[in-house]
Specification:
Layout (H helix, E strand, L loop, with lengths): L2 H10 L18 E3 L4 E3 L1 H10 L6 E3 L7 H9 L1 H9 L16 H13 L16 E9 L6 E9 L4 E5 L9 E4 L3 E5 L1 H4 L4 E6 L8 E6 L3 H22 L5 H9 L4 E7 L9 E8 L2 E5 L6
Antiparallel strand pairs: 1-2, 1-3, 4-5, 4-10, 5-6, 6-7, 8-9, 9-10, 11-12, 12-13
């Protein structure tokens, strides 16, 4: 690699979308997939390695050698051209990850983009919008706090998410209306890499109840997450046809504007401050003894 090759390589990083990771938009990427032709950040480079060299060959901009023909190929491809091809049909409910999103979500997106090429075809993926989805998810118990397997059934025709204590049970333990549901990936909150939080309210009740779930398979966990978002998106779209895409996405994401610990005193001035988990939900500020209460 000549000094000129190295100069040409780093000049490419100054062009448009090459200034950001092709997969999560982290600024100043220092790695690349040399056979795909994209510049990526260090975190996404690790996921590219998981794809295997038959799909993506990863190289460091500073630590590896860059032959002239490889630099030329990167100039012909680049983030904008590749993303135009491989991200042409991302569904609105499947948000492209950012650098702060959970690892499991970024892995799912990168596999979908490069390995399964879900977004490259006109129309995009449709399997997230199947009318019926069922499977086993581990749910945290309200009393004993342990996670136990439960049967979940998502029925978009009914507009419901049901869960059953027993796989062969006839009556669901709970029926959640999709129009009153929000779903989030919450690996840090439940201390499981595939963790999710489903928040919902009942008619006439402004407060939200939360259930905490995980799936043993990371792909299946994110499949559930996206399928629930797709179902909720389509319910809102049907019930409020006047809304544009951006407005629907705001409704999907508006729950839990901010969460975190704060110290709160009791109703009496003599009571000490105690650490509590606060959640700003739409226009309500709610607090719990810990993140997993509620």
């Amino acid at each position: 690699m000549t000094k000129r090759d190295l100069q040409n390589l780093f000049e490419l990083l100054e062009h448009g979308e090459n200034q950001y990771c092709a997969d999560c938009r982290e600024k100043d990427p220092q790695w690349a997939s040399v056979n795909i032709g994209v510049f990526i950040c260090v975190n996404c480079s690790g996921i590219h390695r998981m794809l295997g060299v038959h799909i993506s060959r990863v190289r460091s901009l500073r630590l590896d050698q860059w032959p002239e023909e490889t630099v030329t190929y990167m100039s012909e491809k680049g983030n904008e051209n590749v993303n135009t091809e491989l991200e042409r049909s991302i569904p609105p409910y499947y948000s492209k990850p950012n650098s702060s999103d959970p690892q499991v979500y970024r892995e799912h997106f990168i596999h979908a983009k490069y390995e399964r090429k879900e977004f490259a075809q006109p129309g995009g993926p449709t399997h997230y919008e199947e009318p019926l989805k069922e499977g086993i998810l581990y749910k945290r118990g309200k009393k004993d706090k342990s996670f136990r397997p439960r049967l979940f059934i998502l029925n978009t025709n009914e507009g419901t998410l049901k869960y059953f204590v027993k796989v062969d049970g006839k009556d669901p333990k709970h029926v959640i209306q999709l129009s009153r549901m929000h779903v989030f990936l919450a690996p840090d909150k439940i201390n499981h890499s595939n963790g999710m939080q489903v928040s919902f309210s009942t008619v006439g009740n402004r407060s939200y109840r939360h259930i905490y779930l995980y799936c043993e398979d990371p792909k299946e966990a994110v499949d559930w997450y996206i399928s629930l978002r797709a179902a909720a998106y389509n319910v809102i779209k049907t019930e409020q046809p006047e809304l544009v895409v951006e407005d629907i996405l705001c409704l999907l994401d508006r729950q839990h504007v901010k969460q975190g610990y704060m110290y709160k005193t009791g109703p009496k001035k003599t009571e000490p401050f105690r650490k509590r988990w606060f959640s700003l939900e739409s226009r309500s500020l709610i607090y719990f003894l810990s993140p997993l209460v509620g």
